[in-house]
Amino acid sequence: MTLSAELLTNSQMPWKTDGIRTVVQAFPYQGSKRQLVGQILSLFPDGGVPLLVEPFAGSAAISVAARHYGQVGEVALSDVNGPLMDLWQRIIDNPDRLIAEYTNLWNEQLEDPRSYFLKVREEFNQTKAPAHLLYLLCRVVKAAVRYSKNGDFNQSPDHRRLGAKPSNMQARIFEASRLMRGTSVSSESYESPLINAPREALVYMDPPYQGTTDVPDHRYLTGLRRDPFIETLQRAIDNQVSFIISYDVVRDDNKYGYKLPDELGLTHRHVVAGVSSQATLLGKKEMTVESLYLSPALVQRLGGLDIIDTRIDLEPAGQDALF
Description:
The protein has helices spanning 37-41, 61-68, 82-93, 95-108, 113-127, 130-139, 166-179, 191-195, 226-238, 277-281, 296-302, 305-311; strands at residues 49-54, 72-78, 184-186, 202-205, 243-251, 254-255, 267-275, 287-294. With 323 residues, it is an alpha/beta fold. Strands 1, 2, 3, 4, 5, 6, 7 and 8 form an eight-stranded mixed sheet that branches. Helix 2 (61-68) links the parallel strand 1 and strand 2 (72-78). Helix 3 packs across helix 6 and helix 4 (95-108) packs antiparallel against helix 7 (166-179). The longest helix has 15 residues, at 113-127. The radius of gyration is 19 Å and the shape is globular.
């Protein structure tokens, strides 16, 4: 009997028992899937994969964790948010320069943090400088980024905090740089990286939720049109691409958007991710239940539906604040 047909124990899946602080997070980012690392890595083929593709990269929490636990060889990050990808490129290629620039920004803010934040935000909207974006992400409330209709970063600062101290940020950036060394980074839409992924690869997607894009206060630089997304998924399925999607989310009795159509033949499972950070911003305490969708090719690689249900669970994860 192969390992994929056996019930794996937690000792064989340390990512399910380690705390979320075990794996470094390069920068704070609302929507990060750090809480789902244990569930998602448990759905990797045994022994890991030679290539992990994240076409909605964001904070790249899954890729960083996969590298930390030795579950992936090469990593390809992409996102339509060009400045965010530039930040990742700087983290990987020149962390010393990034930390030096961040340190200057952090120290210069001390005299008047409120005014200085607005100054840096204005400069970032003109220059898209990676260190400026890092500073802004560390200063905004719960790392809840917001963009105007013309794509300008327009979120306000959390006046209670000055952001991570340079010494703490240096440790995180250097560790993330070490883990992600050699990663391919690009600013592009998701279609090509998904459709053209090799069969031996695994694609993890965390697209913008339907309820967070077509609103006046945008949480993402661009939205996601549902019908073209479904058409692209079908093309990937036809190409026998192995993929996992985190798509809709349920908070108590509320749900953003609609589930993906049954006609795609995806395997759908709900997993509890913990306390909703967005609800926390509104002064509420609600549990977040994430939907995971697995492609037919991945289900086959894992050994079938019965094996999948032994690897994931509905145990809520802790949600300790990092920043």
